[in-house]
Recover the amino acids of this structure.
């Protein structure tokens, strides 16, 4: 990654970390109101906020980790285990992860974090890396659910 792209990724990741609780609250509300994640309505909101906050606070560490796949597997396996024991179906757990990613970008966009077209273009590297990390997360969730069902 070039220095310029790292600077924009840092901008987003620092912003996300600083607003982790607030973004986590938005994520929890999105989960509990979305018809695709109906099982989350029975989970206490504070638990969801804590899960979202944890993701947003740990994202920077995952993002810059040299062995990102391994770290993401460990992190998202724990996430999957929590979802599994809350009786959240696999498809909803995966969609929850997608909403985690989406909520971060919506919040940053709402706060006008990237104001110019150049900012947005350069931030695309951060988007791609975040998508890659959550793709690793999807694989980890599926594998953990499979393991726990045995």
């Amino acid at each position: 990654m070039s220095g310029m792209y790292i600077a924009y990724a840092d901008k987003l990741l620092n912003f996300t970390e600083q607003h982790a609780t607030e973004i986590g609250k938005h994520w929890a509300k999105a989960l509990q109101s979305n018809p695709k994640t109906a099982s989350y309505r029975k989970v206490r909101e504070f638990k969801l906020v804590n899960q979202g906050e944890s993701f947003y606070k740990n994202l920077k560490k995952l993002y810059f980790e040299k062995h990102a796949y391994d770290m993401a597997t460990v992190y998202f396996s724990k996430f999957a285990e929590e979802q599994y024991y809350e009786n959240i179906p696999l498809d909803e757990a995966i969609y929850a992860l997608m909403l985690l990613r989406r909520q971060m970008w919506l919040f940053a966009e709402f706060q006008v974090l990237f104001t110019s077209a150049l900012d947005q273009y350069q931030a695309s590297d951060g988007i791609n890396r975040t998508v890659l990390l959550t793709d690793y997360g999807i694989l980890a969730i599926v594998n953990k659910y499979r393991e726990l069902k045995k």
In short: The chain is about 80% helix and 0% strand. The CA atoms of residues 119 and 131 lie 18 Å apart. The chain has one domain: 3-149. Helices lie at 3-18, 20-33, 45-64, 68-85, 90-110, 117-149.
